[in-house]
Amino acid sequence: MTSHHINVKRPVGTSICRDEKPGPFAHFRAMDPDTEVVDEKSLRKNVPRRAATAWRRLVSYMFEPEDGECLAALRIAFGLLMMIDTMDERGFCQADKRWMEPMKCYFPLFDFIKPLPGRWMCLAYGAMFTGVLGILIGFHYRISCAIYAIPYWYIFLADKSLWNNHSYLFGLLIAIFSTTNAHHNWSMDRLLGKIPSDTPSSVPRWNYLLLRIQFFIMYFVAGLKKFEPDWLWGYSMMSLGHHYAFTPFRYFFSAEFVDHWIVHVGGFLIDLLSGFGLCFQSVRPFTIVVLLAFHGMNATMFTIGMFPYVCAAMIPVFCEPATMSKILRTAVECIWNDKTGPKSVDYKPPTRTKQNAIVAGVCVYTALQLFLPYSHVLTQ
User: Fold this and answer.
1) For each of the chain's 380 residues, which pLDDT tens digit applies?
2) What angle do CA 371, 377, 380 make, to 5 degrees?
3) Which GO terms describe its molecular function (predicted)?
4) Scanning 15, 21, 307, 345, which has its CA 20 to 30 A from the CA of 185?
């Protein structure tokens, strides 16, 4: 039997369908030359729609209600520590000596801010102390935040010679707390009825997220700043291995080993990875233990005021608010025998326009805090 070979000419612009078995009578499918162009146009049209959907999901996520008692406890802890800071590192106890002959060292962008005469500076400190007391007890909360924040930033910017990173952090934290609803629980405003009775005890999630973002950036940027040869090779802070805080380590390692691998390399890894560890529930307990030890050792080795205590006190902001509130309420019940929980009121989010504005503000603030640590061209 003779086999006949049929030569089929393939039209121009066609190709064999690869999912079909080739054969003498294989089917051919014409390729539309405009298909790819149409697909690109449809994708471009879908980009704004997808972006809008993602934005709506972000806004909804950030305005989910969370238990507010944990935030109130953080407010109280922060207010108490800032009272001590006002008397100590801010210099209220030595205001007359410090500002009678102040150092003439100003910030480049704020050189127009000059310190007041010594006695007037004492009034600024008095306003700070009054404001932070109001924050602590939650009395006229928004006004108290302003009374504390304005003189704080004024004193901070009036003398560059006393600049340090944690003083800048404290100023940011008071700005953050002033925007939150941290006074909706455990406050004089709630007790005296200045907050309406139908106001829920819960707070929007962004109240916690803003604090989490701030501390995540603080840890992560501190790690990035340590990513340089002097630090990683152990030359930045030598002889710390002989400090009594590292006595347990010296039972197993030499002081030189402690200097290099625990102080420098360990400090680098703690700063770089702590923010991530606090965000994941599986490793959060271990991260909390490491950070408590880290901040405790910093408090014993360095004279850095309330910074390690503030960092340690703010760690619970990364925990589940409902869980922390249960722990706090149990403690309150044990101390005051008060078993009346917060009044359950349905949380009502603000208007969509206000929600969009708040979330946009959080995004801008986050971008700004990521930029400022590397803005030395502007600030020096």
Assistant:
1) 444 444 544 444 444 444 444 544 444 444 455 555 556 666 666 778 888 899 999 999 999 999 999 999 999 999 999 999 999 888 777 776 677 665 566 555 566 677 777 678 888 999 999 999 999 999 999 999 999 999 999 988 887 777 788 999 999 999 999 999 999 999 999 999 899 878 888 999 999 999 999 999 999 999 999 999 999 998 988 888 899 999 999 999 999 999 999 999 999 999 999 999 999 999 999 999 999 999 999 999 998 999 999 999 999 999 999 999 989 888 877 766 555 555 556 678 899 999 999 999 999 999 999 998 887 655 55
2) 110
3) gamma-glutamyl carboxylase activity; vitamin binding
4) 307
Alpha carbon separation from 30 to 7, 16, 34 (Å, rounded): 18, 9, 12
Cβ-Cβ contacts under 8 Å for 115 (sequence gap 6 or more): 99, 102, 121, 155, 158, 159
Dihedral angle over CA of 7, 8, 10, 16, nearest 10:
-100
Burial class (CB in 10 A: 0-12, 13-18, 19+), 317: buried
Give the residue numbers marked as catalytic.
226
DSSP conformation letters of 297-343: HHHHH---TTHHHHHHHTGGGGS-HHHHHHHHHHHHHHHH----PPP
